Amino acid sequence: MSVSPAAPGNPLRVVIADDQASVREGLVLLLGGLSDIEVVGAAADGEQALALVAEHHPDAILLDLHMPVLDGIGTTRRLAAEHPGVAVVVLTTYADDSTVLDALRAGARSYLTKDADRTDIARGLHAAARGLSVLGPQVQAALLAAATAPGDPGTRDPGTPGPDPRGPGSRGSAAREPATSAVPPPDGLTQREAEILALIADGLTNTEIAARLFLSNHTVKSHISRIFAKTGSRDRAAAIGYAHRHDIGGQ
User: Fewest CB atoms less than 10 Å from the CB: which of 63, 75, 97, 203?
Assistant: First the structure.
């Protein structure tokens, strides 16, 4: 169902979706106190969010990515298909380039991180409802770092392999680029998660992975937690075994 943007003078009608009760309730209080925003529902997972959108027909939804039952990317895809008039604004902890691109490709209009203040969040919601896109500073920095990363295939002759940024004798193979593989990773792994799993299989530490991919240690740890969950791995050794069985890294 198509939803028309809020008329001038009317508050923007918003659904909030976040699996952490404290965050969800905080956002309801934070945004509910604004005269130009009306929070019409709050959900703990993607399925609940879809049900609330179908019930209330809001102008926009403020959506976390890491949720149970149906995650933020899957929810965004469903919203884009079933409720294209509802503007999706992602508000999450993760700001690496792969996660950002996954969300935008799924149909999100704006992407903010959870250090955004109330003014930034409100501005992002209103802009998205008008069909505009807003990217938080950390999101812009992640995309810029990815675009300017050393050895970016777009900056050299396609037939010439780039140098290994780790130098001679380093672990792993610089020629392998699992994140750009045309074959989708198994078990719902994103391309970024497959890339990190390949680096784990190559023997890199979290700190080395963070430096290689221009990510924070916190973001790497978050990715690894999701990798363990998706692959059924209890620890790093089990994840490496999974990577070897699926020909991901460790060559």
Answer: 203
Q: What is the pLDDT of residue 48?
A: 97
Q: Which residues of the chain fall short of a pLDDT of 50?
A: 1-4, 151-182, 251
Evaluate whether 213 touches 225 at the Cβ level (below 8 Å). no
Contact 51, 79 (CB under 8 A): no
Element (H, E) at 3: none
Rounded to 10°, the helix 191-201/206-213 angle is 130
- The CATH class for the domain spanning 171-245 reads mainly alpha
Domain segments of the chain as ranges: 12-143, 171-245
CATH number corresponding to 12-143 = 3.40.50.2300
Q: Rounded to an integer, what distance in angstroms lies between the CA atom of residue 234 and that of residue 109? A: 36
Residue 176: its pLDDT value, please? 39
Select from 72, 188, 92 the least CA-distant residue to 139: 92
pLDDT given for residue 183 in this prediction: 64
